Amino acid sequence: MNKRIATLIFGILLMGIVSAGLVSYLSNAVTGSVEVRGPAFYLDNINVLSGKPDSGYLRLNDNNVIGDEFTLGSNKFYSDSLGVDSFYPLDFKITLNAKVSGLPKNETTGEILETCSIQVIVYQASNSGSFKRTLCEIVKTGFDNEEDYEKYEFNCIGNSTTEINFNEKDRFELLLVEECPSYSIAYIELKGNSYIQVVAK
C-alpha cells in the first residue's frame, strides 16, 4: 500500500516538474522580441499622376526603381493610392543618398563656409494629388559632401498623436526642397538608396 502511494506521489511530482519546465519553455519562446518594419517607399523618377507631370513616384516596398539621380530643386513624389481608411499615429524615417557641389569655401584654407539644407514634408494627398493634411515636416541641415554620395538618415516626427482618417484612394506625397547657398547644387541618388519609411509612434 505504501509503495503504491509512494509511486503515485512520485508520478504527481514528475508531472509537476514536466509541466513547470514546459511553462518555462513556452514563456521563454513567447517573450522573444520580433522586429516589425513599417512600409518603405522608394524614390523613383517615373510619373504616376498625369495631372502632376513633373512629379516622381514613391514605390512601395520595391527598390527596383527607375532613374539614377536628380538635381534637387522643389521635387514632389506620390505613392499609389494606399487603400486604407485610417492610419495609426506615425512618424517617418527619411533616408537620402545625397551630394552637393559649389559650396562657398575660404579661399585660403579651403574650409567650407556654408552647407546645404533640405526641407522634407510628407503630406496626405487625395487621389488626384491635392493637399489634404501635413503629416510631418523637417529641415535637415549639414549636407556638405562634394565627392561621393553619402547616406543621410533622420526622423520626421508626425504631427498627429491619434488615428488619422484616410480615404481609400488617398496617397502619400513627399516634397523635397533644396535650401543651398547661391550657386550651390544638391543631388539625390535613386538606385533604391533613397526612401521614406513609415514608423509607428
Written account of the structure:
The chain has 201 residues and is mainly beta. The chain folds into two domains: 1-34; 40-200, Galactose-binding domain-like (Jelly Rolls), CATH 2.60.120.260. It contains one helix and 13 strands. Strands 1, 2, 3, 4, 6, 7, 8, 9, 11, 12 and 13 form an eleven-stranded mixed beta sheet that branches. It has a two-stranded antiparallel ribbon with strand order 5-10. A hairpin with a 5-residue loop joins strand 7 (116-125) and strand 8 (131-143). The model is unreliable at 1-30 (pLDDT under 50).
Describe, in short, the structure shown:
The chain is mainly β and 201 residues long. The protein has one helix at 2-30, and strands spanning 40-44, 56-60, 69-71, 74-79, 86-87, 90-101, 116-125, 131-143, 150-156, 164-165, 171-179, 185-189, 195-200. Strand 7 and strand 8 (131-143) form a beta hairpin.
CATH topology of the largest domain: Jelly Rolls
So, the CATH homologous superfamily of the largest domain? Galactose-binding domain-like
Instruction: Provide the domain count.
Output: 2
Summarize the main sheet: 11 strands, mixed
Query: What is the class of the largest domain in the CATH system?
Result: Mainly Beta
Basic shape: globular
Number of strands: 13
> Strand percentage, roughly?
35-45%
How do the helices and strands follow one another from N- to C-terminus? HEEEEEEEEEEEEE
Count of individual helical segments: 1
Give start-end ranges of low-pLDDT stretches: 1-30
Distance between the termini: 65 Å
Radius of gyration: 27 Å
Average pLDDT number? 87
The appropriate CATH architecture of the largest domain is Sandwich
Structural class: mainly beta
Helix content: 10-25%
- Quaternary status of these chains? single chain
